[in-house]
Specification:
Length: 175
């Protein structure tokens, strides 16, 4: 099992199938707030859906194409941070993240993202990390700002979220 300790209370762990129930319960408990920004919420209806997601992320990890890690805070699963994919020819990746409602406002995601960024730049020797955030998603927009990413532009009508297109801001960090 992949585990990375951030501090006394927080660690990252590679998601495993045995975490499906806990991840589904976290998703379900935060469904209303997550749905506003994440297109997969409505298709996550059962523990089996979450198990399928985790199985896909394990294949991603085995294929050396990134990973999805659970963020554990004081022994509880608080959220997920990970890489969407790795473009090895260009040494770049993009970062995604979310937290359950009851874990927000503790600095968990900023710390978790910083550790993943350090891993990408130092261990994987990637050159570029990108974060895309829907315009209006103030909590997620704060993360790249705190971590020193440069705002590179806006992709208009970039994502269809439940019958409405939203713009995405693109942030980049170059080693």
């Amino acid at each position: 099992m992949f585990t990375y300790k951030i501090n006394e209370d927080t660690e990252l762990r590679l998601l495993e199938v045995r975490h499906a129930e806990e991840l589904f319960q976290l998703t379900d408990a935060s469904r209303n707030s997550l749905r506003k920004w994440l297109p997969w919420i409505d298709s996550t209806k059962t523990v089996e859906n979450t198990k399928g997601f985790i199985e896909g992320t394990l294949k991603q990890f085995c294929n050396n194409d990134g990973f999805q890690a659970g963020v554990w805070y004081k022994g509880e699963l608080a959220g997920v941070v990970g890489l969407h994919t790795i473009d090895w020819s260009n040494k770049s990746t993009s970062l995604g993240y979310w937290l359950g409602d009851s874990f927000q406002g503790k600095g968990l995601m900023t710390k978790s993202c910083q550790e993943v960024i350090n891993y990408c730049l130092n261990e994987l020797e990637l050159k570029r990390i990108e974060i895309r955030v829907a315009a209006g998603n103030e909590k997620s927009l704060a993360i790249p700002h705190r971590l020193g990413f440069k705002k590179e532009g806006c992709l208009e009508k970039s994502e269809l979220l439940y019958d409405e297109y939203v713009d995405h801001y693109v942030f980049g960090l170059i080693k």
